[in-house]
Amino acid sequence: MLAGPQLTALQRTIGNQALIRLLKGHDRAERRFNVGDSAQHALLEQEESTPDSEGARRSDPGNVSGIGDELGVQRTLASPRFAGDPTLESIHEGTSTLSEGSEGAPVRKVQHAIHDAGILFSSFGTDSSFGRQTRQRVLQFQSSHGITTDPRGEVGQGTINELDGMFPNVALPTTAGDPYGFSEMKDVLCQWNAPLINDLQSLTVKIVGGLQWADEEFDGTGWVPNPMLGAGETAGTNIIVATNGFTNEEVARSLYHEYQHARSPRAYRSQPWAEEETRVFEMETYWAIERGITPDPTLTTTDPDTGEVEMDTAGVESTVQSYPGVDAANPGEVIGKVGTNQVQVALPNGSIITRNAVAGDSVPGPRQILPPEVAVPSSDWVC
Ligand SMILES: [Zn+2]
């Protein structure tokens, strides 16, 4: 058994490779998406087709009404998702609401919580913009939770208090940092994300020892092996997560990440995969920080004064941009070799070109699953 510091170092290394692999895994999934993910599409088509952020948004940028955080206001929101947010605290005090036309972080926090409560934003995702879909989702949440005190479709005191109670400030299970075990991993998610666990019954989830891709990298003159380990992959509604070398909370984080791809909002289906990856990394990171799960350090910043860890938009962007084949100088995604010194590239506009390989280009190789390989029976996805 490895000593503590060695183990930490090993996990960090695997984690960084895994981060890249999360990108790569999705990248592959994205290409398959476009070919025809009929089951998921059918599901999404059942949703209303009204634009949320685009088109339907009112012209006024926000209508958060009421007073902010004057002295004497008691701040009692308890959930780490909401506590200390001035707008949400004032909603909690009954002095303002969020409604159609509202924008910004408070909207995103509420959208994300409603999403985690099992009511998904299937058109545009949790986009910080309170449009028509958000109004419908708030209405859905209010009726399924018997909230009658708020204006219909607006986030008022009743709605924020109900959400606050659903995502309590609760410590992770004591086994969260232990090497992966199925029920211990599930325990991490069941505290806040029982609806996710439940929804996995409708998806296909395989839990494997490892995911490894036999990629190759161009070193300027030729192709050299560049094998990559991964933490997860999603193709349509098929999720694979890797467990070897990972702790329960790390696997839980991978599963949370891959689940977001499997339930990707429709608007992201026609966007470059980098947009979808950015969306999912941001959701994962906000969630991990609030949940008390160690986030990926490359996706966060730490305030030097308060020590507070925050989602780092620039970090997410540079991580996504660091994906092989994706950079401003060589746009598009390298999808294969042509001859000995050229590559085939899929451009963001959907066309495929051939260009000379440049140092750092990486081409995907066959993916290998390392044992054990377990197809999780849907009946196991209960909290
Ligand atoms: Zn991903």
Write the layout of secondary structure elements.
Elements lengths: L3 H33 L1 H8 L40 H7 L12 H12 L15 H13 L12 H10 L15 H18 L4 E10 L2 E3 L4 E3 L2 E3 L1 E4 L2 E5 L5 H15 L10 H19 L8 E3 L6 E3 L1 H9 L11 E6 L3 E5 L5 E5 L5 E2 L3 E9 L8
Parallel strand pairs: 1-6
Antiparallel strand pairs: 1-4, 1-13, 2-3, 2-12, 5-6, 7-8, 9-10, 10-11
The protein binds zinc ion.
Zinc ion (ZN) binds next to helix 1, helix 8 and helix 9.
| Biggest sheet overview | 5 strands, mixed
Helix percentage range: 25-40%
Strand content: 15-25%
Beta-strand segment tally:
13
The separation of the N and C termini measures 32 Å
Mean pLDDT, as a whole number?
83
- Number of helix segments? 10
Outline the low-pLDDT stretches.
Answer: 1-51, 53-70
SSE-based structural type: alpha+beta
H-E string: HHHHHHHEEEEEEHHEEHEEEEE
Morphology call: globular
**Which ions and ligands are bound to the chains?**
zinc ion
Radius of gyration: 22 Å
